[in-house]
User: Fold these one by one.
Assistant:
Number 1:
Amino acid sequence: MALPHDIWVWIRLTIELAAVTTIILIIVSTPIAWWLSRSRRRWKEVVATVVALPLVLPPTVLGYYLLLLLGPGGPGGLIAGLWGGRTLAFTFEGLVIGSVAYSLPFVVQPIRNAFDALGERPLEVAATLRASPWRAFWTVAVPLARPGFLTGAVLGFAHTVGEFGIVLMIGGNIPGQTKVLSVAIYDYVETSQWFEASVLSAGMVVFAFLVILAMNLIDRRGVQSSA
Amino acid sequence: MTDASKIDVSFRGALGRFALNVSFAVPARGVTALFGPSGCGKTTVLRCMAGLQRLADGYCAVNGDVWQDHSSFRPAYKRPVGYVFQEASLFPHLSVQRNLLYGAPETRGITASTIRFDDVIDLLSLKGLLDRTPHKLSGGERQRVAIGRALLSQPRLLLMDEPLSALDRQTKDEVLPFLERLHASLSLPIVYVSHDIAEVERLADHLVLIRAGAVIASGAFDDVRSNPRLPLALANEAAVTLNATVTSYDERYGLATMKVEGGHFVVPMPYTASGSRHYLTVAASNVSLAREPARATTILNILPARIMSTAAANDYETVVLLRLGADGTGCRLLARVTRRSWDDLGLVEDAGVFCQVKGVSLMST
């Protein structure tokens, strides 16, 4: 028995999706985390709650709303119309948008924690050394929050690799476009191809192990360098 | 309007348990100490001067340049200040060298008043530390780097918030000489917050006394310190510090004779060359007063002086401000005597007396 050649297509798509999603997540999460960490507005916790919702919502619920948003009747359809498409659902782009929404709390939270841990002092020091808030952010806050960024990136990447419900709801199962590993495993089980399912599943377990291990190592390094 | 060579400050606002209401104007040269007990508001004043904290009712002008008034507020990063915090607060992700250069202007327009990198390295003995990271430095080294970093941002005013208080006694003694060198070699005005009179004594030219959010006195250090109507002179550890120059040395007894304004002191000490300069600190509790110069006594220093003013230290003791010399034109001295002795001797203001100084402590300049 051998694994089909298609497996490399699924792996490539999975990694591509996770990589693009992670890059977008870091770009989107950084200003949100900074604002949540520094703002004194009382309703900021409302925003924090909205960001955290995917932690507890069933992926099917999130996927359902995303389907409405991305579909022909929602804003996603309008955007797709710009390049002559009809919908963002069941496309790679739609999958990226869904993954970003779904993994947002996993990236915002560690970055916000890292910004919180800075305290006021390093930024005050930068200000008394004539650094504008913009320069202080890039030269002091971001480098000092590096462990938070690393944790966020690893979590965002891994979480995207492992997602299933959202993909099924808004991505479907289109080979080369939206068929990722987790869906492939589901397909194998559906068709009783146990060997293929167990090889892919074991691969995912190894991957998850490596991710958590990497995270723990990052955390420990963070502890050492701040001691 | 604004005086071109003054630091002019006024801040009002709520501060925890009490109201902050601090105004003072001091010359924009030398070291001005903001002195007072912990929690009296002196750090808040410094933070307001730097623009790190904003009180709506504030005014701050340095050398005629208005940083804050009722209608304008210049943010911290646009004020030409250097700020040294209680903890060194170095950037842990940067080497010592990059910490030092973080605030240094990029344009290399070197003028006569530019504080040069090499000079700062020499002044603070930082040469061997440049490639290290902050967490490999001792507490004293860190604070020296923090001072250097503040200096290299080319400030026009250096603000120091108890820079020694987080250090142990020994490290303090290691850093204090650097501050004295800084004071002596740079023309940069410094505002120095402290609650430690020993530090203030060694550094301050001007003194602003703060209690519970308000200024109770401000002026030249010697004037404020020796004014018997102010709490510094009334405190148990009240003292004055005098500039003294050695005029001769008696090797047989190991005694140096030193000249101060209006008199001479004889001080036991190891050999010291004529002409060398020292600080003599004379505690008020070590000075007693006599109508006549005592003849048979072990006290070496008996100096004629004139009584300037007095104040009650408590129910049974009086603090007396004197000036050395029979004509009362020499330097100031404080004496702490019992009220009974004061009355028994029939002492009055402007009377001539003899000060018997039981001991002095010595510090080289």
Note: The two ends of chain B are 39 Å apart (CA to CA).
Number 2:
Amino acid sequence: MQITALKNATDKGERAAPPLPATRQLLSWLDAHLPQLFLVPGVACLLLVIAYPVVYNLIVSFTDASLMYPGWAFVGAENYQIALGDPTFWTAALHTMVWTVCSVGGQLLVGLIAALALERITRGRAVLRLALIVPWAFPAIVMAFGWRFMLDPLYGVANHIMMMVGVIDAPIAPLSERALSMPIMILMNIWFGFPFMMVAIIAGLAAIPREQYEAAKIDGANWWQEFAYITLPALWRIISVLVILRTIWVFNNFEFIFLTTGGGPVDATTTLPIYAFQVGWQRYDLGRMAAIAIVMIVLLSLLLTLYLRLLRRRDQESEI
Amino acid sequence: MPILSYVVAGCLSIFALFPLAWMTLSSLKTYNEIYHFPPIYWPTSFSLSFYEKVLTTTPFLSFLWNSFVVSGLSTIVSVAFAAMAAWSLARTRFRGRKLLMRGILLAYLFPQILIVIPLFKMISGLGLANTYSGLVLAYVTFTFPFSTWMLTAYFEKIPYEIEEAGRVDGASNWTVFFRLVLPLAAPGIVTVAIFAFINAWNEFLYGLIILGGGAKRTLPVGLYSFVGGEFAQWGEMMAATSMTMLPTLILFLFVQGRLAGGLTAGAVRG
């Protein structure tokens, strides 16, 4: 197949009429630099999503720019002072940390359990795998409305199930309870995110050589020992990559919470992206929104640095 | 032990599938059955009345069309850009290559909320606010980094000797790329394209900001505007969300096997 493709390709090249010398020179120059030219649209995209927004936010965060009025003036570090002096900012930062750490931890745990269970199953494995992967396909808006309907105070199925199990006596409004809304959001995020973890961990499990388990069996290792001394160390690298990717993604996630609770009740589920959106898009204060976005990146970088530190320490330990 | 595994996997499957099942079942109930407590788990008769209502009394179909246009166009453009860049990154060694690869990863570090306002300002500055082109531009920029990341891994797997052979036979770079590399990478490109399509189809925030409340609203933005206020009409909502879900679910299940390989290839490399 490759050879015929090649033949066709060269045939085409020969059959084309020879263009004028100048055009020809230009064409051959273009062709010689094709790999570099091919980068141009992509680099433009990257500049558009990285360089431009970062520079824009850095500048605007020191101004009083607003969505309501044109023009702006520099105000120094005022936006940062106001943002960092606002108690709502700090509760939002705390919520973000809880939301990120609990969601990612839960996704990883459930994903790992699902992967280990699937690994030991032979019959019906493909079907179960397909079923387990379904949440991943949910658009945020569909997930939000689906869960809101299940949690509806009047007609929600969640109330009925909890009453049957005996957790509650009368219907409640789960998403309006201050103490419940964040745990529910985290549960929803675990539901959405565990398939991704599971799929990646299954791929990691498949790469572990069978002989290691056979050797362990001969040495009389039990299931837990196999898991602790063979499986987990082998998965360590992939788990750390997954945790880092997911942390970035969950930390920055705006849609799930915005569409499900809108940050409420009051501010019980207001994370930093929601807070930034409220300040910028609903209160028109672009300068402060930019300042918050910059602080968010700093916080996320700190969190990731902490992770990388922990991972490195773990790596060194395992070498010893 | 296998029995325990079946129990665990079975319970998790119920957890995973329940929201989808409940959504579709509810959308097929009648008005009296859906507004009933305790809930009716299995409707006595199935009815399409909510679907009919959504399709005839709301702009659902025009939202659907908008979503198809925007997701389709942005997928084509971003995958084309990504294939070009990924080939370059996989095949040539040049100064700044590392920097570029890092830049692609860096694009993930930045919250959407940081990007959306500058992007909106620029798009409205170009006069593209509330247009298909404006949103397509936004979606191309946000799907490009991931598509490139995955495609670079695919291209690196294509044996370089094939390209060499083509060049020895006098093929130009252009011919090598379009007639040798692209056909060989077709499975990877299809996977990445489907993934980009799903991402664009599901996206909400850019759509909300760039399209506002206009006639070009995509499905997520349109559905969001359905629930203006306290009163949520659950039946219509569940019918609408079921229909929104269908294309992504089919595409996703079709592509999921290959997606796993691509994702982990990218992840382990990094």
Note: Residues 107 and 194 of chain A are 4 Å apart (CA to CA).
Number 3:
Amino acid sequence: MKSLEELKAIRERNQGKVGVRSENETQTRVVVGMATCGIASGARPVLTALSDAVQKESLAEKISVTPTGCIGLCQYEPIVEVIEPGKEKVTYIKMDPEKAMEVFERHLKQGQAVAKYTLAAQQL
Amino acid sequence: MYRSHVLVCGGTGCTSSGSQKIRERLEEEIKRNGLENEVGVVKTGCFGLCALGPIMIVYPEGSFYAMVKEEDIPEIVSEHLLKGRVVKRLLYDETVKSNDEILPLQETQFYKKQHRVALRNCGVINPENIEEYIGTRGYEALGTVLTSKKPEEVIQIILDSGLRGRGGAGFPTGLKWKFAAANHADQKYVCCNADEGDPGAFMDRSVLEGDPHVVLEAMAIAGYAIGASQGYIYVRAEYPIAVERLNIAIDQAREYGLLGKNIFDSGFDFDIELRLGAGAFVCGEETALMTSIEGNRGEPRPRPPFPALKGLFQKPTILNNVETLANIPQIILNGADWFASMGTEKSKGTKVFALGGKVKNTGLVEIPMGTTLREIVEEIGGGIPNGKKFKAAQTGGPSGGCIPAEHFDVPIDYDNLIAIGSMMGSGGLIVMDEDTCMVDIAKFFLEFTVDESCGKCTPCRIGTRRMLEILEKITNGQGTMEDLDKLEDLAAHLKSNSLCALGQTAPNPVLSTLRYFKDEYIAHIVDKKCPAGVCKALLSYKIDADKCKGCTLCARTCPNDAISGSVREPHVINQDKCVKCGACMEKCRFGAIYKE
């Protein structure tokens, strides 16, 4: 390697990956239901889509994507909860990888929750 | 990309507790559950909480699994990694709050007051993957320095930061570099002292095993600053994992053009080679180390001339400790002011301590200078186990002294420790409780020094041995009060006349225990008793006739037939035959045997 630019490229390629290994209270937590009902209805592709997106854009220090057990609303799986520090939890239901990407772009990156996919919208 | 990283500690401590097998089983189970594309297993360096190894952390949750056994792995994989249900009973118990919520690792007593600067990457990255090091801004400092700073500027930054040598002496690093830079020669050298001879110290080992690239990068920066093109890392052969990881790191750095010719197209050449030690504590001494690299028996040389003028192969050389070097890249990246904002007025930055002895949380801790001994022992260390009382903490290994309870609130820094009769040393911190005999401790360290003395100079070769003989007399119950005067005389002689710091500091454990625990010495000499109950020659094992049931178990256990008595009659120990092995006391089911 002969230049600082090349070093930077390698750093950016790996930053996302190593960034996953940190933990702090200011992180936004994205929790994906991965109990049996979740997995059966396709939660794993949702989890990997979100996790890959966060790492590719080097946002792992700000956003952590983790699986969790049974949330209790089995008929609405796959469920994704977004917990931002100091804000109320937003629960997205019946997710798939495409919807997850929309939530990533609009809610996680731009701070605007996608109301039509939330549990609150469903109950109306 | 993996959505989950499982970090398994691959440091020497956890490896010797079986972390290798755990890692292999983990990979097997992950494959069995079809998770190999989602979950990555990473072998890392030391997390620091060695008392709870083998250690495994699952990210991004930050779940800290402690004392992991191979048979726990299938459950962790199927419950946590597949279904996201953390296995609470296997977590480090301090991370599970009373209401069952999980406390982040950073909030636990052990980690709360720590500030990992030198240990930044240990336990986070895979030390055998240079790209992960680069991913945490590795080699960016070297790149910045080579492309946009002059050597004098680099030296000034290190001077301004206030960094002092972490090997024990605490000499200002920037000043050492400045001296070497000022001397002109056709070749100069950068050496790294990775000998780490102090018993109980493993700070440098953890950096070498967990983040070897930081040492390489720092040496290259130092080479640029002083005008050297060749570096040597002198690492003790008793650290095979460190040697292996260093070799891998050097090969990778060369492959990526970060070591070798014309680094970052700047015209600067720098390469590094390893030299293995062969088991001599004295080779951790600056000039003995260089003499050893030159192919001779490790013996120190008189100074002046100092190595900055005539060091390795008689050329200007700087020798820096591993931990000192581990701070360099971050000082360049974050600035001298950042480093100087931590610590005390004369001791800037942080220090890594290897916490051992009678304390709950043994392991590696990194704390800002100025943290008190009380905070280290009671908060970070979790206190003394078994309800025992703190007696003293020994810092600086065989060159250091002990800090008694009266100085529990001393803020730890280079100058404060010297003022109370100890020294920072390389970072070994051994906690002792009421069951430790201070005379025995002084004897232990002197046994070590006598063994390791190279023999070149008379004061050390003969003086340490004479001091040890006196201590042996005292612990055997044959000491006299004149012996204490002789000890102090010999100590003064060694301190002012030895050729190198091994001899000059060998009396320290004796002097400091005499200063704070003279009553123990007097008890050994006048009363012929060891108050802590350690020195075997001064102990008698006795049987309490009221408690003895005459079961004869002790008499049958005794290897020397020293116990006599008839069945159902109280037994008696013959003091002339007793070898004080303690086997009878262990066997007695009625607590009838005691030592005094």
Note: Chain B has five domains: 4-108, 130-340, 350-433, 438-527, 540-595.
